[in-house]
Amino acid sequence: MTLVESPEKAPERTASRRLPAAMLALVGVLLALVLANGVVDASFFSFGQLRNTLLLAAPLALFAGAQTLCMLTGGIDLSVTMTATAVAYVVGSRAAAGDSTLTALLLGFAVALVIGLINGLAIGVFGVNPLIMTLGMAAILTGVLTAGSQSFLSGATQMPQLVLTLGRGTFLGPLPWNLLVWAVLAVLLVLLLRRTGLGRLIYAIGDNRRAARLAGVRVWQVETAVYVIAALLGAVAGILIGGRSGAVDLQLAGSFLLPSVAAAVIGGTSILGGVGGYGGTVIGALILTVLDTMLTRLSVGEAFRQFIAGVILLALAWFYVSSTRRASARRSPA
Amino acid sequence: MTQPPDLLEVREVAKSYGPVVALRSADLSAAPGGCHPLLCANGAGKSTLVKILSGVLRPDSGTIAVGGKQVRFGNPVEALRAGIAPVFQDPALVPHLSVADNFTLTGTDRAAVRPWLARLNLHVDLNERVNALPLALLRMLDLARALAHDPQLLLLDEMTAALPSDYTELVFAVMREWRERGRSVLFISHRLTEVQQICDRATVLRDGRAVDTHRTAEGGEARIVSAMLGERASRVDLPMAERRSAPAGGPARLEVEHLAAGRRLQDVSFSVGVGEVLGVVSLEGQGEDDLFLTLAGDQRMRSGSVLVDGTPVKGRHPIQAIRRGITLVPSDRQHAVLPQRSIRENLTLPLYSSLRSWGWINDRKERRGVQKAVEELDIDTRAADAAKQLSGGNQQKLTIGRWLVGGYDVMLCFDPTRGIDVGTKHQIYRLLRQQAAEGRSVLMFTSELREVPLVCDRVVVLHEGRIVAEFPAAAADEETLLHAMHNLPAREAS
Amino acid sequence: MTVTASPVPQLPPPTRPHVRAIRLLRDEAWTGALAVLLAGLLIWQSTQVFRWGAFELETLFVSTLPLVFLALAQTVVVIAGGIDLSVGAQMVLFNCVSGYLMLDAGFGMSLLYAALVIVLGMAVGVLTGWIVTISGVPDIIVTLATGFIWVGVALWIMPQPGGGAPDRFRELFTGTGTAFWPALLCIAIPVAVVWTLLRRTRTGLSIYALGSDPQAAFLAGVDARKARLSAYALAGVFTALAGLATTAYTGGGQASLGVANTATLGAVAAVVLGGVALTGGVGGLIGPVLAVWCLFLIPANLLTLGVDPAYGEVVRGVVIVLVVLGGSLLRRKWSRT
Question: DSSP 3-state assignment of B273?
Fold first, then answer.
């Protein structure tokens, strides 16, 4: 990465003032989509529709949160949706086998913890490329679950009542429980990134790993923590999805994987690390969900939906890169 | 009798990076059949000039003419076509390919390169992969490759640095041959004795400007050194904090004993006292970066020991050095600044490096620390949300300020004022003196010899991995230091 | 080495054969190990299967043909120092395009369409590389996005599985009966051509240079843009072949995002296993091909042992992770010396 220096005279309005502007633009896009949705389908604003939209958005936002954390350190987690599926399986099968809900949930989280630790240590200590490591982990989990669903994880079609409530129930009218769960986690995530030492280190490592090391940061510890937290977020998402559908199957979460990365990128988190945050990601997740709903409503074919998802992702990523570049170019004549 | 046009004529070439002027106005000419050394003090713009001549960089202004024709190149291929073949310090060979493949890649004619390989005694299997060969051999191969393109001007950047003497002899022989063919060689070097042997005209660069061109026969080393020094102009008067004389029998804070590390540091021993600023000067590549990286905990030592307040420091992660109070301000701001993060995040980074501090940030404590650093260093904090938008001087202040916030006992500063405007330089001098007055210690490497008496209490000179001289600040004038850096015998004050 | 400057130029001595053999062994160690592994897996399979023979080999070579081409596509991009997450999507696209075009076509026309698809593949590749170059967006994100786009286009061309291809065309890839050599030829010929391009031409070597050390490459006069576009163009040719092979194998076209993603990830795994460094500049074409076959045989063999095929998947995943772990450990050890 090149450092760029600006003249000694008073620095002008900086480009990163633009990023909050980019956030506003994103919110604008979201509002426009929501309105468009309303035009297309008047029932969109009904409580029922809103509830459905939010129910879909919450798991995506959780997966995207996991991706945000990993991407901020310059990595990625392609195993998070399989982790979610695995946790749903564990919880479902333990509950069906008679364990208490609490035991089942704890066991599920324990599994996620182990997965996250393995990912984090391989990436942080052994220096394995995050793409490859999490890919391999996903493959392992797929295999284990496929085999397990025949044997030790069979009968995992019964999610405990608590999970079912969280997954599809509502309170105070139309507000889904899973929204509350997500909201709590979202707040925690934002606080983690902005108000804790760990959050500072996450950004620092992604921005300039060498500088962080020379300042005394043990990079592997931070990376391990990040992948553990990502796995735990995936676990919650898996539980919520399992609760919503009431059943578990291998395809449970798979369709969320690439959109989770897309949501983070759309929200302004750079895959190279050091820049971004959860706020943007949430808006990105909402945009994707609302867009998807609208396109489904318009009976737009799957073809166009895929196409437009790709175009939006590319366009926004391009925009972020070129706005950063333009700022740098203005600063130095060289 | 008309003179044949100079093979290379460089007129008023200049290059700046924002406010930092790398080359002010360089003039240079090389006659056919000439061997022309280019000498400069560190940071005088030499590498920029080499990059411009070889097409890696474009100049901001000025003209370059080869064989009387004006040229302009935007990449190394065009420079080669114009007749300039560079041989860089880092060989332009792709590491994972074989030597033969590299020749194919660069369009080097096998038939043309073979005689040069023989001439340079390079009996190497061309199918060997580049990263399996030693560096000295690679540089010779690079030379052979450059020669095979039959350039008008051969540009050798520190060719003989780190070459064994038998190779060096071959290089000189080849250079002589090249001149006999009526071509030219531009030879950049620090080794004054070699320069005398080979070349007939010498140009000295200082402060981005060519200041002296003369026949090496007239003047010898003395003239070269004094050209590097420039006018003994009076420096900007600067109220200097009162300096303590070298601690007599006082406690040493940092003790280094027979330290050997990395590729080039062979054996150094010295100590830095409490409240002392010890300077380190050397030519490039004498082991100075190994020294600093090892003391900072980033690199393992091969042998020797480092003691802080009497107890040894070990480990291979910077955190261990930092815990003992040794902190590093790296040479390259790219290794220290978090470009996309705010000033505050940059300054407070060390506060969170241990597991204990992963939790909630104490806003007040942070603000106090940041405020203090910003005031002491006079950091310009207006409207900058990302450190990369700051000027070079302010970025450097961030990297120093980080340790004001995080706390330290011994600060290792590696060329802290390189590429920084004068005003900021003086601010940093003042700060370092102040820190010393408050009882901390500083080990500072500098490529700007003028700084030494301003900032340091003592200075040691590093040469080929060892300390060859030590001076108190009072005796550390540029001339003395330059002589020591080139490992020349000491001269009497003139 | 003592040296006297001699006035008469002497030629370097010719390489002794055993030195050359040692170097060959060292450079191709990884591929060699894969070949040994493959041989072992085949032998194992032959002991498990009654009357092991052409049928098993045909199954191996034909059913893995699309993935082999994808692995080759990914290899070229990775050697240039990049990665392409859209190779699977491109395969699906070209599968649908060719399935659509070749429906009810004669053999001659089908060949024409195949050529067209290959040219299209090159164009798609160049477009991808061009976007990566001028946008400055990391290739992982660009190709993630274009992957969606290509699947979208494929779905538009073929919303439902359909299409077809003439039998003679299909037999070009799949052979008749248990003949497995057409499939091998389909692999061998492109590999030979591309390998020659990569290792004997300046453009090919510039692809290696770009991935190995962009700075040294620049100093050596390599045109980075041209090198990158060439890499992606070659990859496009291979993804087109993958699409054609799928059409030949399945007899039609099917647009599925799931298939695209699985294929892409399988290609990445094969590339890593095949000894190609993700950092670029290192690796050849044979390794990934052998890796695809090994990755196919591991679960297949476990299946014949009565092991749940899912555990075969687990073993595959574990193998990938262990290999990568081992690879990075080894690389670290070497770099420290």
Answer: strand
The verdict on residue C333 lying in a domain is no
Say what the pLDDT of residue A46 is: 74
For strands B184-188 and B153-157, give the pairing: parallel
Chains adjacent to C (≥3 CB pairs closer than 8 angstroms):
A, B
- Amino acid C3: pLDDT: 38
pTM of the model: 0.84
For residue C233, give the nearest of C122, C134, C71, C69 by alpha carbon: C122
CA distances from A140 to A77, A93, B156, C318 (A): 14, 19, 55, 6
Cα(B321)–Cα(A108) distance, integer angstroms: 41
Q: Is residue C309 part of a domain?
A: no
Q: Rounded to a whole number, what is the distance in Å from the CA of B342 to chain A's nearest CA?
A: 10
Q: Which residues numbered 48-67 in A keep a CB inside 8 Å of some CB on C?
A: none
d(CA A247, CA C141): 33
Asked if A1 lies within 8 A of B334 by C-beta distance, the reply is yes
Q: How many domains does chain C have?
A: 1
Of C138, C269, C311, the CB nearest to A143: C311
Q: What is the DSSP string of C271-305?
A: HHHTT--TTSS---SHHHHHHHHHHHHHHHHHHHT
User: Any bridge partners for residue B466, and if so which?
Assistant: B267, B463
- The answer to whether C11 contacts B118, with C-beta atoms less than 8 Å apart, is yes
- The H or E element containing residue B17 is strand B8-17
Residue that wins the pLDDT comparison between A227 and B471: A227
Residue A244: inside a domain, yes or no?
Answer: yes
Q: What is residue C132's predicted lDDT score, i.e. its pLDDT? A: 95
Q: Do C19 and B95 touch (CB under 8 A)?
A: no
A148 contact residues in C (CB cutoff 8 A): 310
Does A330 score more than 60 pLDDT?
Answer: no
Determine, yes or no, domain membership for A217.
yes
> What is the reported pLDDT for B79?
87
Q: What is the greatest pairwise CA distance in chain B? A: 82
pLDDT at B250 over 70: no
Q: Supply the pLDDT for residue C10.
A: 42
Domains held by chain A: number: 1
Q: What is the pLDDT of residues C201-254, one digit of tens each?
A: 999 999 999 999 998 999 888 999 999 999 999 999 999 999 999 999 998 888
Contact C33, C287 (CB under 8 A): no
Q: Are C231 and C129 in contact (CB under 8 A)?
A: yes
Query: C34-49, pLDDT tens digit by residue?
Result: 899 899 988 888 888 7
Q: Each residue of B275-329: pLDDT tens digit?
A: 899 999 988 778 888 999 999 999 889 999 999 988 888 878 999 999 999 999 9
Q: What is the mean pLDDT of residues B367-379?
A: 89
* Residue B238: pLDDT over 70: no
Question: Does C309 sit within 8 Å of A129, measured CB to CB?
Answer: no
| Set of chain B residues whose Cβ sits within 8 Å of the Cβ of A214 | 296, 298, 318, 328, 330, 335-336
Pairwise CB contact (< 8 Å): B117 & C12: yes
Instruction: From A240, A227, A233, select the one nearest A77 (Cα to Cα).
Output: A227
CB A65 within 8 A of CB A278: yes
The ipTM assigned to this model is 0.84
**Tell me, what's the pLDDT at C54?**
81
Q: Which domain holds residue C277?
A: 62-284
Tell me whether C312 touches chain A (CB under 8 Å).
yes
Quick one: what percent of chain A has pLDDT higher than 70?
Answer: 88
Residues pairing with B16 in the sheet: B21
Residue C178 located in a structural domain: yes
Give contacts of A71 with chain C, Cβ < 8 Å. Answer: none
Does residue A284 lie in a domain region? no
Question: Is C51 within the bounds of a domain?
Answer: no
Classify residue B406 as left (phi > 0), alpha (psi -120 to 50) or beta.
Answer: alpha
Q: Is C213 in Cβ contact with B166 (below 8 Å)?
A: no
